[in-house]
Amino acid sequence: MSNVKSRLRKEKIAKIAMQLSGMAITGSLFFIVGTILYKGLPYLSWEMVSQSPQGGFYIGKDGGIFNAILGSLYLATVSTALATLIGIPISIYLNMYVKSGSFLERACKLLFDVLFGIPSIVYGAIAFSIMVWIGIRASLLGGIITITLLTIPIVVRTIDELLKTIPIDLKHVTFSLGSTRWETAKMFLRYIRPGIFTAILLAFGRAIGDVAGVLLTTGFSDNLPKYIDEPSATLPLAIFFQLSSPIPEVQGRAYASALVLTCIILIIVICTHLLASKQQKHKI
User: Fold this and answer.
1) Of 24, 30, 38, 81, which alpha carbon lies 20 to 30 A from 105's?
2) What's phi and psi for 182, nearest 5 deg?
3) Which pLDDT score is estimated for 282?
4) What is the pLDDT of residue 31?
5) What is the pLDDT of the chain when averaged over all its residues?
6) Which of 210, 76, 100 has the alpha carbon at shortest distance from 160?
7) Coil, strand or helix: which one is 100?
8) What are 40-47's contacts with CB under 8 Å, separation 24+?
9) Is 98 helix (H, G, I), strand (E, B) or coil?
10) Per-residue pLDDT tens for 175-221?
């Protein structure tokens, strides 16, 4: 009887801990969003969103952050697409072609776990060294290369975990019917397609919100990004530079820029959930 009471007491404590954790996370989210809205909304205007910086924008004069919005979208879209194209074949190879439990499989997954946890500033420093060595200046291309390397481990590990959720019996059945490993892999990709959208979302969110990785590699420009080998502004860097200004109006623009970045991510999240819901209907 005392054992039952002890288990019920532990369950109650665990339930309270989970509720407190949920309240803390929700409260933190509301605090962050509330701060951005309170400090950024008064400075947000159509002119700020639709115009490039004019002379002296970062010391309180006219202009906007359209160049940073466009640069962030270019950077995040291309790097996420490249990371997806590279990451999905790696995940398929590790799960379909490498023997389960082998040294190669364990070594590769450990490597991607380590890469997943490395701070983005390290990626930026290494990419900057490589760029100097091969003669590439700070540009949109340098940022895309850096962020692609940063997001590949996210795609690989997320899809790897998704593939683990597929029942092993399904794999054996498909092989017993004469399917090749590639045909089985294509069927599994269709099975986890909603999850792949989530992996892409995670990679895109990391790509568009990272500042340390692009600080040394992308450079910064007040002009619209026209060529891939030119420096380009991004929203995180625009926020970083504006927040470092002593002028209150410029700091307010930084919060408005953060509000724009939050809205972009929110729109992407909603679109991804809609796509995932649509694809769920075709799940086998």
Assistant:
1) 81
2) -70, -40
3) 53
4) 92
5) 85
6) 100
7) coil
8) 40/252, 40/254, 40/255, 40/256, 40/257, 40/258, 40/259, 41/256, 41/259, 42/252, 43/249, 43/252, 43/253, 43/255, 43/256, 44/256, 44/259, 44/260
9) coil
10) 777 778 888 888 888 888 777 887 888 888 888 888 888 888 888 88
